[in-house]
Write a structure and sequence with these properties.
Strand content: 5-15%
Largest sheet: 4 strands, parallel
Shape: globular
Mean pLDDT: 90
Low-confidence stretches: none
Length: 168
């Protein structure tokens, strides 16, 4: 196994819910193997309160998360991206900018917990469910022999992971 740290960008339209959770979970579960970021095509400006409650309840430093544009990752000065994962159908259908590093792209569509209306407990349950679905996908991703897969093999494996339970 190499010492390569994989850079993963999780994309969604608003960069306030699913992509923020993906960034957090990839960073923690990747245990130094993954450098995770998130961004959106039309960022909301702040993470969703439900995402922040989930992260706080699970011991994350909230200061590490902000809603940002995917343009931050398309400049020549940005770090190369190895893998770009869209987690919402809107972002998957949009023309993404050209990211430094020519990343492998995949789609892991998930229901948007930010769309859930109801009590704080109901909203928090939706965020916990989305986090659980992301954890399943990230576990499968981290089990891949990343250093031995060609870009095509990696994309195919990531696409299969994107079809796991809870696909939207």
């Amino acid at each position: 196994m190499s010492d390569k740290v994989w850079t993963v960008l999780v994309l969604c339209t608003g960069n306030s819910a699913r992509s923020i959770l993906g960034e957090a979970l990839l960073g923690r579960m990747g245990e130094g193997r993954i450098l995770a970021f998130s961004a959106g095509s039309k960022p909301k400006g702040v993470p969703h309160p439900g995402a922040l409650r989930y992260l706080a309840a699970n011991g994350y430093d909230l200061s590490a998360f902000r809603s940002k544009s995917w343009d931050e990752f398309a400049s020549a000065a940005s770090s190369p991206i190895d893998i770009a994962i869209t987690v919402c159908g809107n972002a998957a259908g949009e023309a993404c900018p050209i990211f430094t590093g020519a990343p492998v792209r995949t789609h892991w569509g998930l229901p948007d917990p930010a769309d859930v209306e109801g009590s704080e407990e109901e909203v928090d349950a939706a965020f916990a469910r989305t986090a659980k679905l992301l954890e399943m996908r990230i576990s499968a991703f981290l089990a891949l022999p990343l250093d031995t897969l060609s870009p095509t093999e990696l994309r195919n494996a990531l696409n299969i992971i994107g079809q796991m339970e809870g696909v939207a």
